[in-house]
User: What shape does this take?
Amino acid sequence: MIAVVDYGVGNLFSLQSSLKSLRQEAVVTSDPGMIRSAERIILPGVGAFGDAAEKLQLTGLDRIVLEQAEKGKPLLGICLGMQMLFEKSYEFGEHRGLGLLRGSVIPMKGTIPEGLKIPQMGWNSLMIKRNHPLLQYVKEGDCVYFVHSYYATDCEESLLAACEYGKELAAAVAFENVMGCQFHPEKSGRVGLSILKAFCEVPV
Amino acid sequence: MLKKRIIPCLDVRNGRVVKGVNFEGLNDVSDPVELAAFYSEDGADELVFYDITATVEGRRLFTDCLRAVAEQIFIPLTVGGGINSIEDFDRVLKCGADKVSVNSGALRNPELIREAANKYGSQCVVLSADVKRVDGEFRVFSHGGRQDTGLEAMEWIRKGVALGAGEVVLNSIDTDGVKKGFDLEMLQALNVDVPIVASGGAGGIEDFVELFREVPGVDAGLAASIFHYREVRIPELKRILEENGIPVRRIE
Assistant: This one.
């Protein structure tokens, strides 16, 4: 069973539907017991980092996710959920993340060339930096769907794939059992579904 | 590099897809779920569902069909039509929409844009404007393109973006249904720092090539009937765009 962590941010309809279409048993939950008993955990998220990190802390689910990740359970952060895996973020001030991955999250504004629209919204192609089971069905140049105004940096240790948006931005990351996608696999057509499938197949 | 998006638009009434020429003379085309699956497989980058029903029962049929589409189709879905309140945003987002487009509702109450952007994020709020030339200026029309609001279009759109709209759909009433190309002049007049979707006038593949070549600030091209009647197939359209040096998402 996959636990999709529900901490009150974002629309989980598509994520649930896409896991269902892969015939995966997925439960959207904020119950620590359910998250502990799940085989895999997905940390979703849209919106602002500080707001989401605060909600995760208020619900106490940050500790449960950390505890389970440290036990070696496969964890996938999606979009803001991926950003929260890092040590810190500079979105409207400085916020502490879960610290499961080395690196920090910074705004595009002022750090990518001017003239590019922010957020990056739309389909961009993946440049694969390192082979990993999460991307086992993905080919160089496959397109996935992004919506974000911030990105992870100083994350060479975990970088699996990047996309080009004025400069190379982290698109997929993994270190041991902790994985993340900056893009939305649940909105990325067949390529996205194949990434979710690969996550479901990562050995526990 | 970010790809230019191709977006089929499905006008839905009582759970069925329709398309009119110059917004009139509607006739039934197909089943939304079937058509959505077809487009997704064909390589559509996003789908827009436009609810043109005015009744409560029609609204329910619309959200039923939206839910059925969102359960099977895993590309971004935008919903528009009859969005007048935060409750309307909530209703369609719960059924699987990713973005919600506002038109007449925002003209009546511009604060709706700000409220929705604060609640769901700007990426979720699309400002759709029906624009027509009147007395030498671009004028915004409401009520499905029937009523002149007297507002200058580019000013209104910039205001909408300032209020929090994260994307703009610019639909030219002058070229809609005419099939002689997008309204390049109107699109060139629009300058905002959020994605721009061009709508109205696509008649063939060449029109998309011209659009992306002549108006680099446009991020996506939207059309309905040419896709519904299979006059243009998306794989061929994307192949030709790519041959012309326009970045697109190709799927095998």
Summary: Chain B has one domain: 5-243. Chain B touches chain A at residues 1-3, 5, 40, 45, 70-72, 74-76, 93-96, 98, 121-123, 166-167, 193-195, 219-220, 249-251 (CB under 8 Å).
